Structures are given as structure tokens and as C-alpha cells.
From TrEMBL:
Residues 2-224 form the ABC transporter domain. The keyword Nucleotide-binding applies. This is Putative ABC transporter ATP-binding protein. GO terms for cellular component: ATP-binding cassette (ABC) transporter complex. Keywords: ATP-binding, Nucleotide-binding, Transport.
Length: 224
């Protein structure tokens, strides 16, 4: 479980998140809000990419500010732009990169790479140069690179923003099928319409925390 206790985030003298306390337990949670409302900052706090200025974030009791590495083993993070995530020139090398940190033996690495490529119908791309993939393919490979680590929770920061309709649907299906818990920051309201919980952030504060039918309508009202 992710526990956020009295968290505020400041950059210089600017307050981006103000006194947020939440327990994130549901299987599918969406974070929505206007541009600049603080959603990505919130997401980055959840796996220790960002430490809170005030308060604390814990994952199963582990404080992100004390052991970010242990937290990152539990909480994977998918960036909006896969260019931030793909580092190696060949698909299979990129997938192997994260696994090395887990110190798995080579047979287990191989098993996981084959399994994730098969599961997402990507086997033909195994030896493919990553820079020749389309934007949509890059995003799918970037997500596969997080899933292969088998984190318990996955945070997605606007995973469909750069994608065409077909790839948006593909990523939506990937998220839907995940056995893990997922927390998704998005402007794509269709993506999260069936989620269990939607948190609306406005000007750094949680203004609605409810089921989608209520929270998404409040978001639409706020944007009107
Ligand atoms: N590292 C940083 N240093 C300074 N300011 C930052 C930093 N990270 C974010 N900010 C500022 O915090 C505010 C909130 O940014 P954030 O990216 O969290 O918003 P967002 O809700 O995700 O926006 P969008 O929907 O446009 O992606 C912005 O004004 C941004 O410029």
C-alpha cells in the first residue's frame, strides 16, 4: 500500500502540492487535473523519483526518502515519453537492462524477455533497433521494460498522450490486463472511466476523490 502523509512539494518558493494525505489501496486509481496542477509531481513522489519537501510517502512501510531503491523495486514508473525510458540500441538489450539490476541469472532473464515479448505480440521486434521503432511501438516496449521487472504497483504518467487511437487502445488493454495495481496520471478520460477511484488535483490540492462517474464529471465542470 502507498501511504501519503501530509505531503507538500515546493520548488523554490512555489508550492506545487499542498498538504496531501491519501492511502492508495485500490487496483486501478486515476489522477486527473488541468495542465500544471501537480499531477506528474504527485506521480514522481510515489516511487521516490521526487522526495517531498514536507511529509512522507511510504510503500508497504518503506519511506521513499530513506530507501528509494527498495521502493523502486516495488513501484515501477512509465514515463509519458518512451524516449526517457529506452536506453539501449536493440530491443532485447533494452529489456535486459533493468533485469541486470535484479541480479537474475541469465536463464531467468531470457525467460522473462521471451515471455514479455510473446505476451505483447512483440517477438518479431526482439532484435530490432530501438531508434527505428514508431512512437507507439516505443511506448509499448517501454511499458514492457517496466513489466518485465514485475513490480507490485505501476505508476503511468500520461501513457497515451503521444499515441494514435490504435495504440491508445492497445495501451488501455495492456493496463486493463495487468495483474498488478496501477496508478495512472492522464488527460484521457476514456482510459480511466472503469477505474475504481479517480483523484482530481487542482492547484496542488486534492479537490475530489471519488468513483469515476462523480470525479470525472467534476473535472469536466472545472474545465468548462
Ligand atoms: N523540478 C521542478 N522544478 C521546478 N518546478 C517544477 C519542477 N517540476 C515541476 N515543476 C512545476 O510544478 C508545476 C506542476 O507541474 P506538474 O508537471 O506536476 O503538473 P501536471 O499536472 O503534471 O501538468 P501537465 O498536465 O501539463 O503534465 C508546474 O508549474 C511545473 O513547472
Amino acid at each position: 500500500m502507498i501511504e501519503i502523509e501530509n505531503v507538500s512539494q515546493r520548488f523554490g518558493n512555489r508550492t506545487v502540492l499542498e498538504d496531501i494525505s491519501l492511502s492508495l489501496t485500490q487496483r486501478r486509481i486515476a489522477i486527473v487535473g488541468a495542465n500544471g496542477s501537480g499531477k506528474s509531481t504527485f506521480a514522481r513522489l510515489l516511487n521516490g523519483l521526487q522526495m517531498p519537501t514536507h511529509g512522507r510517502v511510504t510503500v508497504d512501510g518503506i519511506d521513499t526518502a530513506k530507501d528509494a531503491r527498495a521502493v523502486r523495486r516495488k513501484v515501477g514508473f512509465v514515463f509519458q515519453n518512451p524516449e526517457n525510458q529506452i536506453v539501449y540500441p536493440i530491443v532485447e538489450e533494452d529489456l535486459a537492462f533493468g533485469l541486470r539490476a535484479l541480479k537474475l541469472d541469465s536463464a531467468e532473464q531470457e525467460r522473462r524477455i521471451t515471455e514479455v515479448l510473446e505476451r505483447y505480440d512483440l517477438s518479431a521486434f526482439r532484435k530490432h533497433p530501438t531508434h527505428l521503432l514508431s512512437g507507439g511501438q516505443k511506448q509499448i516496449i517501454a511499458i514492457a521494460g517496466v513489466l518485465i521487472m514485475q513490480p507490485e504497483i505501476i505508476v503511468f504518467d500520461e501513457p497515451t498522450t503521444l499515441l494514435d487511437l490504435r495504440n491508445k487502445r492497445r495501451v488501455a488493454r495492456m493496463i486493463d490486463a495487468l495483474p498488478q495495481r496501477a496508478i495512472v496520471v492522464t488527460h484521457d478520460l476514456d482510459l480511466v472511466a472503469d477505474f475504481e477511484r479517480v483523484i482530481l488535483i487542482d492547484q496542488g490540492r486534492v479537490v475530489v476523490d471519488d468513483r469515476p462517474s462523480i470525479a470525472l464529471q467534476r473535472y469536466l465542470d472545472l474545465m468548462a
